[in-house]
Recover the amino acids of this structure.
């Protein structure tokens, strides 16, 4: 297995899927000659040509809307939105069209569409370029929402997304592109809708995904040094949500902390904790805690931004609070 | 209004100061002292020519991220700009909360835009509507790049302004590139001004490197808007001679010859020639201005470096108007 970056893993998945299936094509702002804002499609334009790697006008609604049209007639578009913050300019097409067309056609038409986009803070890009609105998209039935935390999952899940018959929001994290990990070569597919255990432990369950997996794993390392064994569950897909590994782990540890980068209110942690209370109430030994972003638009100044984002120390503190509470 | 020699010199000075500030921002980025810079180099004549046709501080402005020279013309100081780049306390756009070049200056009636492009144009239409409702004679000036004219919201804004005959001036600063994508891939018409045809307003194209030409065209548009004649679409043809932003390397998509050609038609150069020909500018005056600009930029950097960062507790505020600060 090769040790490659998240960027390379995503790029590899796209490249292999385009080689495998001539119906797959890419459209988006700056994806062609420039190779994408995060350099994921570098080299694609020269290899696959301008028809399959299409630089679009700056018009997010049209990028998603056109991708929907193209998907309905049997192509497999991978639409790139430069950042998830721009997805709000395409919201009608994502929410009122992509999420509902299959259902509203009574299943007659399929929409094999991937919207690749980039979320998350930590790069000093200010409030309107740094959001983590993953839960917003996960709210809508009809969408699949994927947010990988490791290079291997990024590759495998993107392949699954491209092969999916349903529209998939594939949310990458702006500060994970340089993260390295072992990635299987060749046709490696990770099914959408499967959570996984990233670290085993007996004392507490930490449930997380995407960038916060990295933060949670660091917290777990630190806790191990103090004799606390945390089990870390990576959701990987927010919709459809696979609670099985979460519940299995919780029934063993009886305690949980949920770590998400977005805001706590109405967020991923709210959903997970509600489901634990609904489905494993008899196993609850302590109140479940959530670690999330400060409830403000994310500021530009570095210190302010770092203060607002969830940190390793906060996860460690939350775990101790749950254990000692 | 005929411009006096003194005003013309002031216009050139404003352009020059903005240019030297912009150049220093690139240096500060390369020194690792700031996180991000997006440049307006090459756009100064369009912005300053337009600003001087406005009642500055009274008319409303919804700018875009390349409008450093416009903001300087509206009274944004060098120190304020460097403070914003460094995310320091007292930075007037946002108190270090918003990223640089998202201008927002209450005293200049300048309102910031969002992340997706062209949002400011719809706001301009709304401000125009309110002006009309209130019955005063202000106008709104909004700016954007030619790539932003692909955006649905831009058409919606222009259509609104035209339908309701609102006092809005839309200025497209056409530098031929939307980051890396050339304008031929953004629009099927040669000039953004052509887009006015289908929307029912006047569309004009002007040499955006010639500060006086921009001023003349803009003055007409402002007069029309102020007297109830409705909106105008102006395309200012400019040269982007830098990469899109500090995150970009334009060598992968632009030939060096093209950039050199842009430098030969650079706004500072062309406007200087125009003003020298008019006899209001000469080498000695320019040299004095250069010295003064360097002093001011140096002083701004020193002041900003010495300024404190905001306290981290500032991160929590001000999310709502009505809230009590705790602690």
């Amino acid at each position: 297995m090769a040790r490659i970056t998240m960027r390379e893993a995503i790029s590899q998945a796209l490249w292999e899927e385009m080689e495998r299936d001539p119906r797959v094509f890419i459209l988006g702002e700056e994806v062609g000659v420039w190779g994408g804002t995060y350099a994921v499609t570098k080299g694609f334009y020269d290899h696959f040509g301008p028809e399959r790697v299409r630089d679009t006008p700056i018009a997010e609604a049209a990028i998603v809307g056109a991708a929907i049209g193209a998907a309905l007639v049997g192509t497999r578009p991978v639409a790139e939105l430069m950042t998830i913050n721009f997805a709000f300019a395409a919201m009608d097409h994502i929410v009122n069209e992509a999420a509902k067309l299959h259902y509203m056609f009574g299943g007659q038409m399929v929409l094999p569409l991937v919207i690749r986009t980039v979320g998350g803070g930590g790069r000093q890009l200010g409030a309107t370029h740094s959001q983590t609105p993953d839960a917003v998209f996960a709210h809508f039935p009809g969408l699949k929402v994927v947010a990988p935390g490791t290079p291997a999952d990024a590759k495998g899940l993107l392949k699954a997304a491209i092969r999916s018959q349903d529209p998939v929001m594939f949310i990458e994290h702006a500060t994970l592109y340089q993260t390295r990990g072992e990635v299987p070569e060749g046709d490696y597919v990770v099914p959408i809708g499967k959570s996984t255990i990233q670290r085993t432990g007996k004392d507490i369950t930490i449930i997380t995904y995407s960038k916060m997996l990295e933060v949670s794993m660091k917290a777990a390392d630190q806790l191990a040094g103090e004799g606390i064994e945390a089990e870390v569950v990576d959701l990987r897909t927010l919709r459809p949500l696979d609670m099985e590994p979460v519940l299995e782990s919780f029934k063993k540890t009886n305690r949980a902390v949920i770590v998400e980068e977005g805001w706590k209110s109405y967020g991923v942690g709210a959903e997970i904790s509600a489901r634990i209370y609904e489905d494993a109430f008899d196993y609850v030994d302590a109140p479940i805690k959530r670690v999330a972003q400060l409830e403000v638009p994310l500021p530009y100044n570095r210190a302010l931004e770092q203060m607002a984002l969830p940190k390793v120390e906060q996860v460690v503190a939350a775990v101790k609070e749950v254990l000692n509470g | 209004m005929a411009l006096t020699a003194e005003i013309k010199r002031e216009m050139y000075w404003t352009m020059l100061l903005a240019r030297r500030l912009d150049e220093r921002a690139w240096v500060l980025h390369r020194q690792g002292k700031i996180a991000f810079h997006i440049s307006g180099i090459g756009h100064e004549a369009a912005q300053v020519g337009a600003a001087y046709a406005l009642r500055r501080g009274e008319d409303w402005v919804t700018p875009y991220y390349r409008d450093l020279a416009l903001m300087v013309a509206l009274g944004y100081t060098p120190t304020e700009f460097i403070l914003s780049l460094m995310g320091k306390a007292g930075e007037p756009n946002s108190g270090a909360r918003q990223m640089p070049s998202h201008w927002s200056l209450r005293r200049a009636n300048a309102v910031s835009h969002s992340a997706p492009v062209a949002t400011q144009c719809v706001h301009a239409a709304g401000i125009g509507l309110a002006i009309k409702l209130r019955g005063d004679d202000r106008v709104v000036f909004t700016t954007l790049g030619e790539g932003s004219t692909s955006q649905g919201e831009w058409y919606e804004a222009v259509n609104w302004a035209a339908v309701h005959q609102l006092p809005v001036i839309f200025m497209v600063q056409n530098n031929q590139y939307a980051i890396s994508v050339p304008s031929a891939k953004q629009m099927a018409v040669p000039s953004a001004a052509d887009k006015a045809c289908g929307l029912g307003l006047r569309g004009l194209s002007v040499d955006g490197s010639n500060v006086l030409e921009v001023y003349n065209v803009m003055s007409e548009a402002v007069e029309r808007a102020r007297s109830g004649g409705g909106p105008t679409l102006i395309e200012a043809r400019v040269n982007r001679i830098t990469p899109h932003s500090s995150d970009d390397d334009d060598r992968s998509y632009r030939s060096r010859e093209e950039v050199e050609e842009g430098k030969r038609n650079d706004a500072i150069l062309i406007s200087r020639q125009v003003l020298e020909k008019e006899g209001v500018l000469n080498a000695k005056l320019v040299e004095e201005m250069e010295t003064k600009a360097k002093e001011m930029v140096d002083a701004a950097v020193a002041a900003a470096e010495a300024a404190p960062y905001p306290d981290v507790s500032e991160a929590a505020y001000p999310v709502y108007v009505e809230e009590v600060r705790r602690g």
Q: What stands out?
A: The mean pLDDT of chain A is 97. The domain at 2-183 of chain A is CATH 3.40.50.970 (Rossmann fold). Chain A touches chain B at residues 29-30, 32-35, 37, 55, 57-62, 83, 85-86, 88-89, 123-129, 294-297, 299-305, 307-308 (CB under 8 Å). Residues 255 and 286 of chain A are 6 Å apart (CA to CA).
